[in-house]
Amino acid sequence: MVSKISLVNPMAEPFGSYRRIDQLKAIAFDCGFGNEDAKRFGKLSKTATWEAMLEAYGIALPVNKEDELPDPDEDE
Question: Is residue 75 part of a domain?
């Protein structure tokens, strides 16, 4: 019997070290989606394709590191 190995290993490097598209693909594959499912939303090589598919099914997206950075013009 062949067992399915997850693409995301929580004991490996921190999640932020992966490219965003790799994070999104790993989430999609762990949820049971494949490349054929993603093709309905665009090119497989585009991050926006994977984001659109996950959003369409109500799956939470990982936070972008750029989104977490404080705004230098914002007063604290």
Answer: no
Domain that residue 49 falls in: 17-57
Collect all residues with Cβ–Cβ distance below 8 Å to 64 and sequence separation of at least 6: 20
pTM for this predicted structure:
0.65
CA proximity to 29, closest of 58, 50, 60, 2: 50
DSSP class per residue in 24-66? HHHHHHHTT--HHHHHTTS-TT-HHHHHHHHHHTTPPPPPPHH
Q: CB under 8 Å to 35, separation ≥6 — which residues?
A: 44
**Average pLDDT for 28-36:** 97
Q: What is the spatial distance between Cα 37 and Cα 55, in angstroms, rounded to a whole number?
A: 13
Look at the block and give the residue holding tokens 């369409």.
Answer: 56
